[in-house]
Amino acid sequence: MFAPNGSLTGSIFYNPVKLIFGKDSTSKIGEEIASRGFKRVIITMGGASALKNGSYQQSIDSLKANNVEVVAELRDIRANPEVNKVREGVKLARENQAEAILAIGGGSVIDSSKALSLGAFFDGDVWDVPRATPPVSKRLPIFTVLTISATASEMNNGYVLQDDEKQLKVAYMHPDNFPTVSCIDPSFQTGLPWFQTVNGVVDAMVHTLELYAGADGSEETALQLDEGLLRSLVNCGHGLQKDPENYNLRANVAWAATLALNGYSGFSLRGGSWLVHMIEHALSAIDPAVAHGAGLGVLMPAVIEYLATKIGKKEVYDRWAKNVYGVDGYKAGMEAWVKDLKTWGHPTTMGELGFKKEQIPHIAKLVCDVGCPHGFTPEDVAAVIELAF
Amino acid sequence: MFAPNGSLTGSIFYNPVKLIFGKDSTSKIGEEIASRGFKRVIITMGGASALKNGSYQQSIDSLKANNVEVVAELRDIRANPEVNKVREGVKLARENQAEAILAIGGGSVIDSSKALSLGAFFDGDVWDVPRATPPVSKRLPIFTVLTISATASEMNNGYVLQDDEKQLKVAYMHPDNFPTVSCIDPSFQTGLPWFQTVNGVVDAMVHTLELYAGADGSEETALQLDEGLLRSLVNCGHGLQKDPENYNLRANVAWAATLALNGYSGFSLRGGSWLVHMIEHALSAIDPAVAHGAGLGVLMPAVIEYLATKIGKKEVYDRWAKNVYGVDGYKAGMEAWVKDLKTWGHPTTMGELGFKKEQIPHIAKLVCDVGCPHGFTPEDVAAVIELAF
């Protein structure tokens, strides 16, 4: 799905995003936009958090200092972003002749901005952008100020968007749709609520593990790196639970989350699995209130169990258990996963997310309507979901 | 020196190189050059190996198929490349109106090509490019076909060049001087002599450790990743000694070596130390026959010992010993380092490199003439070199 990156025998790596990382990095965003010749931006953002954590004001100050005009604002982009909000953005961007997008927020805001970027130059409805052939070739450049680390959207070319009416959540990777510049100031995250912090950490861990699932064991460098990312996320997750305002821990999680899905972690891993995401996308398409990270964390052990026993991934997951948790066998790794989630107050069952067993066939059908990885049938997917109850 | 990449509180990450990795990746190079509008290239290369391993012929075939003309060839670039050869290249490129450079070779060839790239548009002598203010702004685009993995020059913006007469070896990082596209086909490396293989592995390990030396211990993500790189290099190094033609092992080393110095491994590590390289540069300036990797491998434990005891890096290196070799204390890590080098038939003392203790003051002076890291005096540097005898 994201950052496929082939195998040891054939891969392409390309990621031109300029990252400005650290305290006050946002103060550079105006200059980065202006120096590329853009004078009119549309700002995209979520709710009140960008106003509260200072990211909005810092961005505005930097734009002003560099004579970049804010010609429109698309506010209130929600988690699990929806296509109607992006349609609104496309209209705003066109009406106001925006020359670039400044996304201030997390993955939902940046994902919506990527759809808007292409939609602004697409003749049809923005929902159909992923099916355009050839791909939409013109786009609004995207600049981002990241306020929560989780999806790595700040440094990749993918987005996920849903249509509530269709109960459909679709991922799309456009070859050129990378942000031009992303500012990551971990200070903005020191005040995040704990559940959002955990969801971000878990999201990054699952990205890494989705990619890890593509291994056959010969990819020593990729596996060592991914195990390192996972250990760092576990260690920093525990650290942040005790000390949520610790800047360095936030910064380490931020860097790990970016690396977990910017092409590096997946290099040579055959595109990974993405079964966890496919099922989670169905869950949040049914109930947009399900946090992405929460759904992923619940489903992960079920997917490990299924892939280990049904498609020969046992040795790969045994290695994961050993090298990330120091335990023997993938089942012990799954227990370690669940134990950490419980320690972090994260849900661990489908029931806790509000789903009932009767919904399994419907969820499985939604997954397979979009497309099943590993050649799985709806029965396979149903069996995985069953394991997560 | 290379890829400074600040700290957790302030870093920039930017690497726009497109990597095409895997078997037959070279067959794409003509299209990559032609599609960017370049029709006239100068080829840069070393000695006979590019002719023997097939990389030269594959490149020529791909250029022909895409109507790209080879207007000149700069051959016989040696290891520890020298400025006179680059001067020759500048003349050739100008006389023949080359529009781009195709480097076929390892770090020396690519480094020379980077100097040539800037030198072609510099009014003065190419040796003075690093001291131009402002930096040279026009450059010949660089495309590379990598034939030996070690320096990561295929994916960074630095080069090292020496002047034999001056006994001076200087490193330079230009903000934009990245290759545009690099092809890495590990097949070309399956026939490499063992000493070149080891030198490449050791070079990549030392790059990682130079950066690691910049840590204060708070950079959990960077440290975990670098430990992963080091473990992979150790494991694959041992694997290749038994099975030098193993494609997957070559591919894992290739990817690790690229990551070891493309900005990724050094992110947040304050630019690292680079003391090992500074001293090694003096060694090969004195005797160009000293292989870069050989000098680095010999000096590494001495530098660890000195930094651990004199500038407070003991805990960082204790962590390294534990996480890379599973041993307690940095001294045990140094022993593991030396043991691996001996197993690999790599020199471990200055004497084996052909140096005598009488030369220590001269070497130390050369190092400090270029600039000493950590505020070290020539006496400090001499003490480090003494430890390596």
Count of alpha and pi helical runs of chain A: 14
Provide the residue-averaged pLDDT of chain A.
95
How far is it from the N-terminal to the C-terminal residue of chain A, by CA?
26 Å
Strand content of chain A: 5-15%
- Which of globular, elongated, flat, extended, rod-shaped describes the shape of chain A? globular
What's the CATH H-level superfamily name of the largest domain in chain A? Answer: Dehydroquinate synthase-like - alpha domain
- In spatial order, strands of the major sheet of chain A run 2-9-6-5-3-4
Described by its quaternary structure, the protein is: homodimer
What is the C-alpha radius of gyration of chain A, as a whole number of Å?
A: 20 Å
Give me the secondary-structure category of chain A: alpha/beta
Main CATH class of the largest domain in chain A: Mainly Alpha
Number of domains of chain A: 2
Q: What fraction, in percent, of the residue positions of chain A are helical?
A: 40-55%
Poorly predicted runs of 5 or more residues of chain A: none
* CATH architecture classification name of the largest domain in chain A: Up-down Bundle
Major β-sheet annotation of chain A: 6 strands, parallel
Order of helices and strands of chain A: EEHEHHEHEHEEEEHHHHHHHHH
Structure characterization notes:
The first copy, chain A, has 389 residues and is of the alpha/beta class. The first copy, chain A, folds into 2 domains: 24-184, Rossmann fold, CATH 3.40.50.1970; 194-387, Dehydroquinate synthase-like - alpha domain (Dehydroquinate synthase-like, alpha domain, Up-down Bundle). Helix content of chain A is 46%, strand content 12%. Chain A has 14 helices and 9 strands. Chain A has helices spanning 29-34, 49-52, 55-65, 83-95, 107-119, 194-212, 220-242, 247-259, 275-286, 292-310, 314-325, 330-343, 360-370, 378-387; strands spanning 10-13, 18-22, 40-45, 69-74, 100-105, 142-146, 158-163, 168-173, 181-184. Chain A has a 6-stranded parallel sheet, with helices on both faces. In chain A, strands 7-8 form a two-stranded antiparallel sheet. In chain A, helix 5 (107-119) links the parallel strand 5 (100-105) and strand 6. In chain A, helix 4 packs across helix 5 (107-119), helix 6 runs antiparallel to helix 7 (220-242) and helix 6 (194-212) packs parallel to helix 8. The longest helix of chain A is centred in the middle third of the chain and has 23 residues, at 220-242. The two termini of chain A are 26 Å apart. The mean pLDDT of chain A is 95. At the A-B interface, strand 1, strand 2, helix 7 and helix 8 of A face strand 1, strand 2, helix 7 and helix 8 of B.
